[in-house]
UniProtKB/TrEMBL annotation:
This is Cobalamin biosynthesis protein CbiG. Residues 127-169 form the Cobalamin biosynthesis central region domain. It comes from the Bacteria. Residues 211-326 form the CobE/GbiG C-terminal domain. It comes from Clostridium estertheticum subsp. estertheticum. GO terms for biological process: cobalamin biosynthetic process. Residues 42-121 form the Cobalamin synthesis G N-terminal domain. InterPro entries: CbiG_hydrolase, CbiG_mid, CbiG_N, CobE/GbiG_C, CobE/GbiG_C_sf, GbiG_N_sf.
Length: 329
């Protein structure tokens, strides 16, 4: 990843040179660039980089980034290094943007002291947004995540439940759900378990992206129809639409607009398997003479789910011109 480094003094430029020995940087220097425009530079770095380092006062950095701050899941990591190179301050997006971790890395490069002010970090508590980031989960609601983090900082008992039992109870949480003040659970389901609702406490869901959709369809299938059909089926199976990890299909369908649009909608990976790949496993599933005559294989959706390394949850569903199989990894 390339980082933006913004400097205002000769000493700042010298610090940037040290950073350039270990980091891939673009330097924006007031001393070196005669056309340096503070407002334009501020806008450019905030809109085009995932990591930004200001070698300046925190005041300058704050004024620079303030107009472009959006939300903690979108903002870049922003660090501030003082002109004497004593401190590396994590200023913005400490968790989801990675500024805290980045500050630790940069402080080692410069032999400076990292300054991290995030309350959960300083208390040794595994914050909800960091659990999500480290495990590839989707945060259901950023405000709910903030509320749970605040309760943790206050020392309240927060229950933890992983539907699959994969993640061990993190530091600061409780596996016991008795007398809890809040609850965080991990699931790919759409609707919360009725028993969990009975606790009547602030509750945060982290969504596990573990669902694979195997899809086949007629040529030039309607994008809207495919989208509405898949969403309807997911709701029938109580699957959160944000839990989709990938969509899988055959190479003959790789340019099918409806399938590509669906992958964009779910913000998931599109996996393409060749007819030769499918032929190796298609004998395990019911097939169609018509499909074989048309594209060279007897089945698409189920073989593609298996080839994705997923466990098949549903048999092939024939849905008015398209087929769908749901799997879980």
């Amino acid at each position: 990843m390339k980082y933006a480094v913004v400097t205002f003094t000769q000493k700042g430029d010298q610090i940037a040179e040290i950073l350039a020995t270990s980091l891939n940087i673009d330097l924006y220097s007031k001393k070196k660039h005669s056309n340096f425009d503070f407002a334009k530079v501020s806008k450019k770095v905030m809109e085009n980089y995932r990591g930004i380092i200001f070698i300046s006062s925190t005041g300058i950095a704050v004024r620079s980034i303030a107009p472009y701050i959006k939300s903690k899941d979108l903002d870049p990591a922003v660090l501030v290094i003082d002109n004497s190179c004593n401190y590396v301050i994590s200023l913005l997006s400490g968790h989801l943007g990675g500024a805290n971790e980045f500050a630790l890395k940069v402080s080692k490069l410069l032999d400076a002291k990292p300054i991290i002010t995030t309350a959960t970090d300083n208390l040794g508590i595994y914050a909800p947004d960091m659990i999500a980031k480290d495990n590839g989960f989707v945060i259901e609601d950023l405000k709910k995540a903030k509320d749970i983090a605040a309760l943790l900082v206050e020392g309240k008992k927060i229950g933890f439940l992983d539907e699959k039992g994969i993640i061990q109870t993190p530091t600061g949480y409780s596996s016991s759900l008795e007398n809890i003040s809040g609850l965080m659970y991990i699931s790919s389901k759409d609707i919360i378990n009725a028993k969990l609702k009975e606790y009547n406490v602030p509750t945060l869901k982290l969504i596990r992206k573990n669902i694979v959709l195997g899809i086949g369809c007629r040529k030039n299938f309607s994008m809207d129809k495919m989208n509405h059909t898949v969403i309807r089926v997911l709701k029938q199976y109580n699957i959160d639409i944000r839990a989709i990890k990938s969509i899988a299909t055959v190479n003959v369908k790789k340019d099918e607009l409806a399938i590509k649009a669906l992958a964009d909608y779910f913000k998931c990976q599109l996996k393409i398997f060749t007819t030769e790949d499918i032929k190796k496993v298609q004998h395990k599933f019911s097939g169609s003479d018509f499909v074989e005559k048309t594209i060279g294989v007897r089945a698409v959706c189920e073989p593609c789910v298996e080839l994705s390394g997923a466990k098949i949850m549903t048999i092939k569903m024939k849905l008015d011109g398209m087929t769908l199989c749901i799997g879980e990894v």
